[in-house]
Design goal:
DNA-binding; homodimer
DNA sequence: TTTTATTTTCAAAAAAAATTGAAAAATCTA
DNA sequence: TAGATTTTTCAATTTTTTTTGAAAATAAAA
């Protein structure tokens, strides 16, 4: 397989994988393209390579910047803005975990904190409900803490320690 | 807050949370409804409570059964089929991890195994590309192993061990 | 300042995903 | 077996999400 074919396949696969996890296919594809691009690309190049419109390109790149998965790069002498993505997949994974935690897990936990039935506390059904919600809240909190720990950790240290307890 | 209000809010929140993770909102809502239902429900009850059509109900319940998140229950004397969902959220989480691994992570790993540039192996760009892909493959494999370990583990044992290494 | 290049916005269009509902198939009962 | 009930299927419709592209805004150059 040559480089261009491989890049193309990877971009398609990353787009498809991302969309199964609630990430807009085009956004995932732009991310993939920048991950496998040697040099920073500008919006025109992204448009051209992925065959998408200027508006679409602009919106999705901005969203990737919000997610801290893509950075703007200033290239001296160039008028246009250029973009790059982190290539170290471990850093990428940590960023995604951090952002999903902040955007989705934390709001869920806040919501669950306020979700309690105070009437009929002796009723069996009410008890079960409150326990189910509590369980979800606690698991979510635990997941959040785990993510924090992973984010702080060094890759090799983390996996080595993890494997050690798992033996 | 009373039980019915709380259930309603939980169902809506679970639906919204699920849809951010690529799970059909209705499927997540049916799952939520069954998680907080004291007794098993039949399709008519689910339709009625969530205000959805028979076809939609049927398809999404079947999908939840595929995901092993919902079980068919036979109630003697009843002609209709009834459905329940596991209420232990830890078991639910493990099931979701196992299924997503099988459906999404494993196919990705298989794909990445075949994705290698064999031409121009000395070219710097080719080297970087192969390394990026290798990194993603290895991280995915590691994630898969971690999921396997979590699935096999007992909840408390797992978190205790985890916390220990994280001190 | 005016002109030119570039980026951003967003209403409208297109595409994708979810939902309906009625007919067909399957299952149960007598 | 025939009739009644329940479940499943799927073409058509609706809803949601994504994408487009041209106009507006912004930024740089002349």
């Amino acid at each position: 397989m040559n480089l261009d074919e491989a890049k193309k396949e990877f971009i398609a696969a990353w787009g498809s994988f991302g969309s199964k996890w609630g990430i807009n296919r085009t956004m995932a594809q732009i991310h993939a393209l920048l991950m496998v691009s040697h040099a920073p690309l500008n919006a025109d190049e992204v448009m051209e390579i992925l065959n998408i419109s200027r508006g679409n390109t602009n919106m999705n790149i901005r969203e990737l910047i919000n997610w801290q998965l893509v950075d703007r790069v200033i290239i001296s002498g160039e008028r246009k803005e250029f973009f790059t993505a982190e290539k170290d997949i471990w850093k990428v994974a940590k960023t995604i975990m951090r952002e999903r935690k902040r955007r989705e897990l934390e709001p869920l936990i806040e919501f669950l904190k306020d979700l309690k039935v105070n009437e009929d506390m002796n009723n069996e059904e009410v008890k079960t409900f409150n326990e189910t919600i509590k369980g979800i809240k606690e698991l979510s909190e635990q997941a959040g803490k785990t993510i924090d720990t992973i984010i702080k950790s060094d890759e090799h240290w983390f996996w080595n320690a993890f494997l050690k307890i798992m033996r």
